[in-house]
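User:
Note these tokens:
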Amino acid sequence: MLIVLTGIDGSGKSTAARALVDAAQADGENALLLSNHAGRRSMSVLAERLGIRWPRHLADAVETTLRVVNVLMSHARASRVDGLVVMDRHLHCQLALRAAKGLRRGRLLPWLIASLPAPDAVVHLDVEPALAHERIMARGTDSETLADLEDLRDAYSSMPEYPGFVQLDADCPPAEVVAKLKRIVNKRILRAETAVAV
């Protein structure tokens, strides 16, 4: 069972992914968490320290390279796991970032998404940008402007892949987000088991 989580920064993806895998492991199930980061946080922190703003195309080139490498490695690891695999971020996230920056989708990322094993569900954690901004400021490890978060949320919703995402309202405490995510995953597992039985 492969579950992919997407959403703007501050939506709670990493927290929910970790909690979901921990809960599955606590129940004696085989579960693996894979993170497909692109180095955005590190680049953001470095840019802030240097007092610069990375050129859009340079930032995208670095982020896309790291994201693609991580996603390919994650799928290779996932193929060897018999159980639940949760991917925190995927190539969809890079497409959304490109759209938010006014860059073209290109051909590579959509081709890779179509070529790689399809997730059993792409769960999109939707959150109001203002709340996401508060969470980011509270953790104090990176920074995002409210305007950037708003642009990214709009970018996700404009993607052709977006209607196929499972929507999860993340404007609530982390425990509630995790509970909602568990229900989504359990439904997918039940559906898969029913399909096998038939």
